[in-house]
Amino acid sequence: MSKQDDERFIITVKSNNKDLLAFTKLVSIRKKRFKEAPSTPITSDPINELAQKLHPDRQHLVISEIKEETKSTKTFKLVPDPDSTTEGLAYFRAGQYLSLKVDVNGVDITRPYSISSSPMDSFNGFYEITIKKAEDGFLTEYIWDNWKLGTKVVSSEPSGNFFYDNLRDLKNIVGIGGGSGITPFRSIARQIAEGKLDINLTIIYGCSEEDDIIFYDELKELEKQHPDKIKLVIVLSCEKITLEECEQGFITADIIKKYTDTNNSSFFICGPQVMYNFIDKEIEQLNLTRKRIRKEVYGEIKDISDFPGFPNKVVGKTFKIKVGIGNQIKEIPAISTETVTVAMERAKLVPPSSCRSGECGICRSLLVSGDVFISPIIDGRRAADKKFNFFYPCSSYPITDLEIIVPRSIG
Amino acid sequence: MSKEITEQKFSDSYDTVVIGAGNGGLAAAAQLAKNGVKVLLLEQHNLPGGFATSFVRGRFEFETSLHQLDSYGPEPKGGIRRMFEDKFNIDAEFIRVPEAYRLIINDPEEKLDVTVPFGIDNFINTIEKIVPGSKDGLEKFFKIAEEIKGAFGYFARSQGKPDQGVLLKDFTNFLKTAAYSVDEVEDALNIPEKARLILNAYWAYMGVPTSRLNFSIFSLLMLSYMNNGGYIPKKRSHEFTSAFDVKIREFGGKIEYNTRVEKILVEKNKVIGVETSNGDKIKTNYVIANVSPTLVYNKLIYPKSEVPEIAYKEVNARIHGLTAFCVYLGLDISAEELGLNEYSYFVLDSISTEKIYESWSKLQAPSVQATCCLNNADPDCSPPGTCILFMTTLFRPEVWENVAPEDYFEIKNKIAEKLIISFEENLGVNIREHIEEIEVATPQTFARYTKTYNGVIYGYEPESWDSITARFMNMADEKHIEGLEFAGGFGRRVHGYSSSLDSGYTAAQFTLRELIKKGEIK
What we know:
A: Rossmann fold; Ubiquitin-like (UB roll); 3 domains; six-stranded antiparallel beta sheet; B: FAD/NAD(P)-binding domain; Polyamine Oxidase, Chain A, domain 2; seven-stranded mixed beta sheet; 20 helices; 20 strands
């Protein structure tokens, strides 16, 4: 021991006394600093304030205008509800959606709708969403009957990853839209026209009826004003066509090749489920890398029992789910072909949800026991969530009785 | 309000409420629940972990903040590994990262490109080869670090009442360096300037220039990394934070996400309960706050008359640490094809830590980035033919205060692009053609998900007067409210993953002791 001590290195930083003295003074210096500091409370938190402006927990809106776009489509203009705490609207990236909470006969349900207005319009105090009737059965039916001027709607922050990113995407963007899937491209086109987005946009828009082309006049006008930036190609699947300068049939690889520089473009695709079923095969023929294809999520799957892997024997069955939510434990019924989120909404448990597609993860819950069928389209779960049996109720279907623990909606 | 919403509210009483499921809160809740305490862990976000989480874009899952966890080596068994394996049996797989770091300095005055290994001897020998004559100083550096570690062990064993004689005799080097900065001690050790550039690369993990950074905390960090190596969880940080979640429930604890605590109710200097944004009114006499004292004293304690003046002064005297800026890249090319062989890169435009700190005070691409290529630690972390790059730099939060929402996306992509270009130029690789997924996180992003004050990711800056030693020595005088303990990066152990985890465990131990003393649990 003593030998080791002899060899032991002892540092001198300033001098032996000063070093030891510095140590003994540590606490008194600390106390002195405290004593001399101001006692003013901190009342502002600017970074959180900006974060809240960009990403509010919720936005309280009210319908200020309703426009009939086509025989099946309406645009709803939403402004901050003057009776609420919402003052300004969150800015967004063209292509993002709002998840709207709709009270349907006492049952709160959520639906994502792409914002069809331009991002700058959020500073002008409004968002627009454009809804096509019947694409989402009972809900649009309800909206058509009940949404009037002055109807209040609660919305999420602008969400989703379906937007142009200059570091990732090529400057030539091909927007492939079907039905109401045109809405994000209207927002993008408007932002281009405002000079706020420096890209070239070719919209290939598939419609089933000539008199049901959403935003036709407006997009044509934008094309005329910005011929080098915006191009519109209409593809009509109906038999009788009077419209000039359009393609007939569906959006095929040949049509895409005819109007775009496929080797030098990024592809953004948005439409209903049926369109994806078709377009996926056409896009495949273009031999694009994954980097150049972005697809918007499209909400809940219509007929989950048609998907391979869904156990046929449970079709038509109703299971029991024991839900732990907050301090409440409740047993609720759940139909196998409806998502767990729908079952909870029907039971008025007000679970959290946003994208309704298995992507955003807001509904993340714990599956304590039982088994679910998970949407084969998107399973956006983290690897560890899979490992520990966390799941997304918005895209999971009960195929046995379940016990689950669900977070409450954010308060 | 519907009947269901009312029924979902919490109104019972709990032995302890833990606020925040970050690293500190998770460790605290686990330790309490394991010991039979009726504990409720409340988290405002819908995930555990705070900064220690992950997110998915396309076919990639990104790590949000961890570069490498220290204290996780198997031999000698690091403190965090002991906590995870022996205390809680946390079900998470960790992978050792291949090297300490590759340091690239591109300053007009000094060019350097060196890859340094873990292991004290290997580390010293690598530097000695590049900078002959540095070995002696570096060996002394680690000897002092060992003694500092020993001193903290002794503090813990003596339950905060160390014998002065023992300290003077056995831990002289600790005493003599405790009040000094990294620069002051390294000057005294005569470590050559160039060797110090290599030795001090991890200073950015502390976020304080070496002229102000306390030596004790930095040398402990170095010792831990060099002795134990660096580790990452196989399935990103979300793996171990989710494993904690599952474990806390298994121990009988309750966790509630999406629930923001709005008030810590205090009466006559004692915690009596908490209230949340969801309308919960919970009775409790003990709160562990995985929240900064800044927010607890300025925002949470209710009524405000219960906040002592000195608490405001303490907060105002301390220097709030930095916030971060991260670029997460999913590339459609493999690391091998890119020619990237290392996991951890520090790329610096300047040799001066003060100049770099200054560069964090302007709205521009800063002079440093710490970039990880996850695939070089875990080849399976992304699909074949792809790789994940994760770039981090830091900022003073004030820099981002006046960014207007309409400029926000453009500003963040401009800074991200500069970081990408800097990496491309320094490593001679082409990244921009291969970006399949990109996400850019700014101070606002960190604020958004964690609600930390001003988006700060580190705690208070550990200058000597506010580093680990001073915080522990003055601990008793800084306890203002009975039943309230702090955990996390703003806690006594200074920031970082392992410190935050440790601080949570310690806070739980203090609370446990009180609960037992008061006979509230056995």
